[in-house]
Amino acid sequence: MIKLGIERIHEYKSLFEGKRIGLITNPTGVDANFKSTIEILHEIGTLVSLFSPEHGVRGNVQAGVKLDPYVDPETNAMVYSLYGETRKPTAEMMADIDVLCFDIQDVGARFYTFIYTMAFALEACKLYQKKMVVFDRPNPLGGVAVEGNLLDLNFRSFVGYYSIPQRYGLTIGELANFFNETEGIHADLTVIPMSGYRRSMNFKDTGLPFVLPSPNIPTIDTIYAYMATCYFEGTNLSEGRGTTKPFQIFGAPWFNSKLTIEALKAYDLPGVQFRKHYFTPVFSKHANVLCEGLEMFVQDVHAFEPVKTGVILIHIIRQLHPEFQFIQPPKTSQNLFFNLLMGTDIIEKNRLSLADLLTKMEADSKRFMTMKERYHLYDV
């Protein structure tokens, strides 16, 4: 039986008793009985402030929407946004707390912004001499497999800040320790580990309830698809936002499903199948326009290689569809959003053949596998 980090808090009461506590959390910050971390911390200490990542403390904000400071109606604590102009807690935000806690369910993807909210909080704790505590949770994709290319720091952004691969195979607590040491942050950090967890487990193996970590990742199945199709956010393909199956459905008004499926057969991708699908997004790209596309079915999560699958999909779709385009960068970046998500411009610039690209990704993955092992808190 797995006990989450937050469920072991009473073993670490000395960290919180008599302390003013700040908390970075969202709706995933609950124990196995859905009692919120907000409530738990309020009972053992003085909870004075909440910090909101992307999508808000209550999960009621769509991707990319910025929030102004406000008072949480349920706790009367001040809520500060860490997704907007301010991504690292400021001196003013940190002044009234002694301990900054982090409890959010990660998805195991480099481009998921919550992990950088955590990293910037570590930097703030070091800068302002505050204690940081991370309550550990499972990596939904498991803690063994590693996949993808190491981020080229020329493409550093809030969807990829450190040189890690897309699928890094660490829990959020292990990743905190990794960032804290390898990036030279050296904050006063305590990770409260889980008990009963083994790193070979995916989320379904844990038996824990799954609380969607953001509006467009409603299920565990979505996370596996997200690892393969999040890159489509940087193109004129719909990645399925505005449908009932974001990231599992993708396409465009000009998409040719038949040709794409035929081309995919040559790669014999393990653990996944595709079917032709029509859909009409109700918001986001191609809103209210009929799209042709594919629906992805991940049938064997242990065999499925999501990053490789996503790269091959981009390669095929780009070859077959002259309408395919990379989206122009936002005003705040000189890089294409696709390149920020990939952490490189190798694909966009066609710097390598597909075969050479996959070879590079495999080499990067093996290199990171060796780097991460010393930060493992759990056995296989």
TrEMBL record:
Q: What is the lineage of its organism?
A: Bacteria, Bacillati, Mycoplasmatota, Mollicutes, Acholeplasmatales
Q: Which organism is it from?
A: Paracholeplasma manati
Checking InterPro entries in the record gives: NamZ, NamZ_C, NamZ_N
Domain Peptidoglycan beta-N-acetylmuramidase NamZ C-terminal residue range list: 225-378
Q: Which residues form the Peptidoglycan beta-N-acetylmuramidase NamZ N-terminal domain?
A: 21-220
Q: What is this protein called?
A: DUF1343 domain-containing protein
